[in-house]
């Protein structure tokens, strides 16, 4: 990488299929990587946590945005973090939270993780830029 490369933390607050936020963020992330920059982490907040749901199943002729993101994160070894408070409010849980709340199943899509706002703060501290992708309206 050159001396002008930057490191980005991306915050996504819009849900797939009801906003363009995840799609726009993925386009940006791919372009940034192609330009020699790096992505420190993706942080999902508010309705953005729906991007980490393993149960999202659009019609067969539509893009599966959660899987597109999961594949991108794995390909580039980028952490994808869903805010725990936002996730729990919206019915998104990992194995740990499933057991803690005695729920019938976990539905967090691999490689996403659930963590607190400290991950957002750390991303802001370690990245040269933090970009927000919000739902319109």
Provide a count of the helices: 5
User: How many structural domains does the protein architecture include?
Assistant: 1
- CATH H-level superfamily: DsrEFH-like
Overall pLDDT level: 95
CATH class: Alpha Beta
What does the model show?
Helices cover 34% and strands 18% of the residues. The longest helix has 14 residues, at 21-34. The protein contains five helices and five strands, in the order βαβαβααβαβ. The relative contact order is 0.25. The model has no long low-confidence stretch (mean pLDDT 95). The chain is of the alpha/beta class. It has a five-stranded parallel β-sheet with strand order 4-3-2-1-5, sandwiched between helices.
Which key terms come to mind for this protein?
137 residues; alpha/beta; 5-stranded parallel beta sheet; 5 helices; 5 strands; globular; Sulfurtransferase complex subunit TusD; Sulphur_relay_DsrE/F-like; transferase; sulfurtransferase activity
SSE blueprint:
Elements: E1 7-12, H1 21-34, E2 38-44, H2 65-76, E3 80-83, H3 84-89, H4 95-100, E4 113-115, H5 118-126, E5 129-133
Parallel strand pairs: 1-2, 1-5, 2-3, 3-4
Q: Quick summary of this structure?
A:
The protein is of the alpha/beta class and 137 residues long. Helices cover 34% and strands 18% of the residues. It has one domain: 3-Layer(aba) Sandwich (Hypothetical Protein Ychn, Chain: A).
């Amino acid at each position: 990488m050159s001396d002008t490369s930057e490191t980005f933390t991306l915050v996504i607050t819009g849900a797939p299929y009801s906003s363009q936020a995840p799609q726009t963020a993925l386009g940006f992330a791919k372009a940034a990587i192609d330009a020699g920059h790096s992505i420190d982490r993706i942080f999902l907040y508010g309705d953005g946590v729906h991007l980490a749901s393993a149960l999202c199943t659009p019609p067969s002729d539509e893009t599966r945005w959660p899987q597109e993101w999961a594949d991108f994160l794995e390909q580039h070894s980028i952490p994808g973090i869903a805010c725990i408070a936002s996730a729990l409010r919206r019915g998104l849980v990992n194995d740990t939270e499933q057991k803690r709340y005695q729920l019938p199943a976990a539905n967090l899509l691999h490689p996403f993780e659930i963590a607190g706002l400290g991950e957002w703060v750390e991303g802001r501290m370690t990245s040269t830029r933090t970009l927000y992708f919000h739902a319109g309206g």
